[in-house]
Amino acid sequence: MSNASDEFRLVSPNINHEGKLPRKYTDEGQGAQKKMSPPLEWYNLPEGTKSLSLVVQDIDAPDPNGPIVPWVIWVVTNIPPTLKGLPEGFSGKGEELGGDYAHVKEGNNDEKVPGWRGPTMPSHGHRFEFRLFALDDELNLGNKVTKDKLLEAVEDHVLGEAILIAIS
């Protein structure tokens, strides 16, 4: 039996699990930074992890005409396992930060642009799911990475998944 202290997990210094997503990471309100991604840290990568991929979605996004369709906020792939997290405001700055951060690739969100797009909330109480995949391989997804492409590619390579939920 593994205990919680050695399970693969994803945390944010600024968000408790099922805690509130601070306003500065959304597109509204005082202090909103528009493209400011929250800081993330992960622990206890599964043995054999070669790369990490992250998908962040609003899992309560409403489609007025139908069932709930998650809204993709951030897609990140090819995160080297040497990194222990992503700093606040990482989105769009990988090259600038250099080193292992320069390998990280940001995919397109549902606004069809790469990087973090903090949601503008039509209503509150939405859950944002941060889902981190530990993979046994590096993915080569070409230039345009999307959530669907990523989820298809990770299918046979997932060694572990860690989830953090934040509430808007």
TrEMBL record:
Residues 1-41 are annotated as: Disordered. This is Phosphatidylethanolamine-binding protein. Signal peptide: none annotated. InterPro entries: PEBP (IPR008914), PEBP-like_sf (IPR036610), YbhB_YbcL/LppC-like (IPR005247). Residues 17-27 have a biased composition (Basic and acidic residues). Pfam families: PBP.
